[in-house]
Automatic annotation (TrEMBL):
Keywords: Flavoprotein, FMN, Monooxygenase, Oxidoreductase. The lineage of its organism: Bacteria, Pseudomonadati, Nitrospinota/Tectimicrobiota group, Candidatus Tectimicrobiota, Candidatus Entotheonellia. It comes from Candidatus Entotheonella gemina. This is Luciferase-like domain-containing protein. PANTHER family: ALKANESULFONATE MONOOXYGENASE (PTHR42847), ALKANESULFONATE MONOOXYGENASE-RELATED (PTHR42847:SF4). Residues 2-135 form the Luciferase-like domain. It comes from the Bacteria.
Length: 158
């Protein structure tokens, strides 16, 4: 698969999966997926199927997230970059007519650089979950980093 075609293939796979997770027999003809009379059994237990989480911050990745995604993994070097990505996401949601609060958004949080005071900004941006990089906390080892995080963030902010 040529690198340039990966987005088209991802879009088609997500569309096909959403169709088959409906519980109905599916006829789907595409460039990469060709199903006739296909039905998935057992069906996913949750309505709508297995959540599709899309990663990436390029315009095509954001369009894909808004169109097909149940979640989005957004990454940026700092809070300002995350703000810019969130603005692009909100603009695309408006363009496609989707509620920006629907997809569950996970962001990488540079705790060491931004500190606990940045939590409110992430919440205001509509981010549901933050990931931390334990080694980036600059502690002597992972356990010390986690203990530090538990005391500085979890104990004080929940």
């Amino acid at each position: 698969m040529p690198f340039e075609r990966r987005g088209k293939r991802a879009d088609e796979y997500m569309e096909a999966l959403k169709a088959v997770w409906s519980g109905h027999e599916v006829d789907y003809q595409g460039e990469f997926v060709n199903w006739q009379g296909f039905m998935m059994r057992p069906r996913p237990a949750q309505p709508g199927g297995i959540p599709l989480v899309v990663g990436g911050v390029t315009p095509p990745a954001i369009r894909r997230t808004v169109k097909y995604g149940d979640g989005w993994y957004v990454i940026g070097k700092d809070l300002n970059e995350i703000r810019a990505h969130m603005q692009a996401f909100n603009d695309e949601c408006a363009r496609q007519g989707r509620d920006p609060g629907e997809p569950e958004i996970t962001a990488y949080w540079n705790f060491y650089r931004e500190g606990p005071e940045s939590l409110k900004a992430y919440e205001e941006l509509g981010i549901h979950r933050l990931l931390i990089n334990v080694p980036a906390m600059r502690q002597q080892d992972a356990m010390t980093g986690l203990q530090y995080f538990a005391g500085e963030v979890v104990a004080q902010h929940g």
